[in-house]
Design goal:
Blueprint lengths: L37 H6 L1 H14 L5 H14 L10 E4 L3 E4 L5 E4 L1 H8 L16 E4 L9 H14 L11 E3 L1 H5 L8 E3 L6 H20 L9 H7 L6 H7 L1 H12 L4 H5 L6 E3 L5 E3 L11 H14 L2 H11 L13 H9 L6 H6 L1 E3 L8 H12 L2 H12 L16 E6 L4 H4 L5 E3 L4 E5 L4 H14 L5 H9 L11 H4 L22
Parallel strand pairs: 1-4, 9-10, 10-12
Antiparallel strand pairs: 2-3, 5-6, 7-8, 11-12
C-alpha cells in the first residue's frame, strides 16, 4: 500500500490475546484452564511459532465442508441433552427502569438478556436449541421457539441501530460508510471506545450469541466487516484490512510518506498529530506538537499500529464469550469467511431454497393462483424485504445455507379462511413463528397480496400484538396463560404468533 516499511508495524504488535488457536481459556468448554510451563514454552517457542504459521496456512487449504463436518461432530459430542430449553426470562421492548437521577431510563433488550442469563448454568449454553425461553412483557406469547428467535433478532437489531435513539453503542459503521468510499460501506466494526465494565460484559454476551448461532443454527443477521471476523478467528489485522474499512485513512498515511521531501514543503502540508479512530474520535500519536519530515515515519508507524490494535481487547472479550459455548481452538482451522458463514448463513434469501422446504395445508392448493402470486411477489422483493419476510414468518432474518440445515423444518403455507371473499383483500396475513407457518387470506389479485404482505413485514413487529391491543381496548386484565410453560408447549392453541387479523380500523369492531 505504500513504499515504506512504516506501513507494516508488524504482526507481533497486532496479536489477539485470549482464546488463541493453541488452547482454551479458563472459561472455555469443559471449564479446563491452560497450564503454563515456562521451560516448555521457552524450549518450544520456535516450533510453536511454526505450528501457528502452518495452521494459518491450512485455513485456506482445507475444504470448508471437511472443516464444518469436523466442527459439527465435536458440537454433537458436547451437546447437553434431555432438556427442552434453558431457563425462562422476561424481556420488555424497551424496558423502563428507574434511572440514578430518579427519572425513567430505558434499558435495551440486549442488556436485559445479558443480565438475566449472566449466571445461567454452563450446561444450558450447550443445548442444541433454545438456550433460554422468553416471555415478552405486555405481549401474549407462549414461547415454542418463535419468541426465542424474535428475542435474538431484536438484540441484533439493537446492535446495528445507529439512530440517535439507539440504546446500544457497541458497534459503529465503518469509516468507509461515513466517507462513502471503498469497501464495507454497509458494515459495522467494534466501537473502540466501548470498553467500560458494562460494555465488556455486553461484548462477552455477544460472543455467547455468536457461539449459540454456531451450535444451534439460530443464525444472526449481523453485518460485521470482514476484518472483524478475522479477529474473531484469532488472526491479527494487517494494513490491507485497514484499507477495507478505512480507505481514506490508509490513503492519508501513504500520502504522508510520499509528499515532497523538503522540510518547508512538508510543513505546508500541515498534517494533524491526532489520528481518527474507527469511531471518528481523534487520538494523538506523537509527543511532538507537529508532524515533521523527520518524524513522519514514526508518525505513520504509530498511527497504523494504533488502528491495527484498537479492536484487540474487544475481540478477545468476544472470543472469551464464544469459548463458553463452542470449542474455540477449532476456529484455528477456519477463515474469517468460514466463521461469518457459520454465524450468519448466507445474506441472500434464496426463494428456490425456501420452495424446496415448503409444504401446503389441505385447504391451500399448490397450483392455485394465490400460491403462484405469493412466490412471484417473494421473488420480486428486494433482498432486504425478503429478510424482513423471514423474520415475520420465522422470527429470523436469514435462511439456513442449505436444505439439510433446516433439520426437517418445513415452511408451511395455509389458507386463512375466516374472511369471506369481499373482505379478504383488506385483511393482513398471519404468521406463526414457532412453526414457520404463514396463513394467507384468499386474496383476489396479486396486487392486494403484495400490498398487505409488504405492510405486514414492515410494520407488524410485536408478537400477538393485536391480542394485546384488543384486551387493552376492552379494559380487561390481560390473560396470562404462560404460567405453565411446559404444558403450553403441548397446546397448539396457545402457540406464539405474529397475528394480524385486519387493518387498524377493524380494532374498533372488536
Amino acid at each position: 500500500l505504500a513504499p515504506s516499511n512504516a506501513l507494516d508495524p508488524g504482526r507481533a504488535e497486532s496479536g489477539i490475546s485470549g482464546g488463541g488457536s493453541g488452547g482454551m481459556s479458563s472459561s472455555s468448554l469443559g471449564g479446563h484452564s491452560t497450564t503454563s510451563h515456562s521451560h516448555i514454552h521457552s524450549s518450544h517457542s520456535s516450533s510453536s511459532s511454526g505450528s501457528r504459521a502452518l495452521l494459518d496456512s491450512l485455513r485456506t487449504i482445507v475444504p470448508s465442508g471437511i472443516k464444518e463436518t469436523a466442527f459439527k461432530g465435536v458440537l454433537k459430542a458436547t451437546m447437553t441433552r434431555n432438556m427442552q430449553h434453558g431457563e425462562v426470562i422476561t424481556l420488555t421492548r424497551p424496558q423502563l427502569i428507574p434511572g440514578k437521577d430518579g427519572r425513567l431510563a430505558k434499558k435495551s433488550v440486549l442488556a436485559q438478556a445479558s443480565a438475566a442469563l449472566e449466571f445461567t448454568p454452563a450446561a444450558n449454553w450447550l443445548l442444541p436449541d433454545r438456550v433460554w425461553k422468553v416471555r415478552f412483557r405486555g405481549e401474549a406469547v407462549d414461547d415454542l421457539g418463535g419468541g426465542y428467535s424474535e428475542s435474538i433478532s431484536e438484540m441484533v437489531a439493537e446492535l446495528q441501530n445507529t439512530t440517535p435513539s439507539s440504546l446500544v453503542h457497541l458497534l459503529v459503521p465503518t469509516p468507509n460508510s461515513a466517507s462513502n468510499s471503498g469497501l464495507n460501506r454497509d458494515s459495522f466494526v467494534f466501537n473502540p471506545d466501548a470498553t467500560s465494565e458494562q460494555d465488556l460484559k455486553l461484548f462477552r454476551f455477544v460472543g455467547r450469541l455468536l457461539g449459540v448461532a454456531i451450535r444451534t443454527g439460530e443464525l444472526l443477521d449481523i453485518n460485521l466487516a470482514g476484518p472483524m471476523w478475522k479477529l474473531l478467528v484469532g488472526l491479527p489485522l494487517d494494513p490491507t484490512d485497514l484499507n477495507e474499512i478505512d480507505t481514506e485513512f490508509m490513503s492519508s498515511m501513504k500520502w504522508c510518506l510520499s509528499v515532497p521531501s523538503t522540510e518547508e514543503a512538508f510543513a505546508e502540508m500541515d498534517f494533524p498529530c491526532a489520528v481518527p479512530r474507527a469511531n471518528g474520535r481523534l487520538t494523538p500519536v506523537l509527543e511532538q506538537a507537529a508532524v515533521t519530515l523527520g518524524n513522519r515515519d514514526e508518525y505513520v508507524r504509530r498511527a497504523i499500529s494504533m488502528r491495527l490494535n484498537e479492536f484487540n481487547l474487544i475481540a478477545s472479550v468476544i472470543r472469551d464469550g464464544m469459548s463458553t459455548v463452542i470449542p474455540l481452538p477449532l476456529l484455528s482451522m477456519h477463515t474469517a469467511r468460514d466463521l461469518e458463514s457459520m454465524v450468519c448463513g448466507e445474506a441472500v434469501v434464496d426463494v428456490e431454497l425456501l420452495k424446496s422446504v415448503a409444504s401446503y395445508q389441505e385447504n391451500m392448493q399448490p397450483e392455485s393462483d394465490l400460491v403462484k402470486w405469493f412466490w412471484e411477489v417473494l421473488e420480486e422483493m428486494s433482498m432486504e424485504d425478503r429478510g424482513l419476510f423471514i423474520r415475520f414468518a420465522w422470527g429470523r432474518s436469514r435462511l439456513p445455507r442449505r436444505k439439510a440445515d433446516f433439520k426437517g423444518k418445513e415452511f408451511v403455507l395455509q389458507l386463512l379462511d375466516k374472511y369471506d371473499t369481499s373482505a379478504a383483500d383488506q385483511a393482513l396475513p398471519e404468521a406463526y413463528t414457532c412453526f414457520f407457518q404463514l396463513k394467507l387470506p384468499c386474496y383476489t389479485n396479486k396486487r392486494s397480496l403484495r400490498e398487505k404482505l409488504l405492510y405486514a413485514i414492515h410494520f407488524c413487529k410485536s408478537i400477538d400484538y393485536d391480542n394485546y391491543a384488543r384486551t387493552a381496548m376492552l379494559d380487561v386484565p390481560e390473560s396470562d396463560n404462560s404460567d405453565d410453560d411446559d404444558a403450553a408447549e403441548d397446546d397448539e392453541e396457545d402457540e406464539d404468533f405474529l397475528s394480524y387479523n385486519g387493518s387498524d380500523m377493524e380494532y374498533a369492531d372488536w
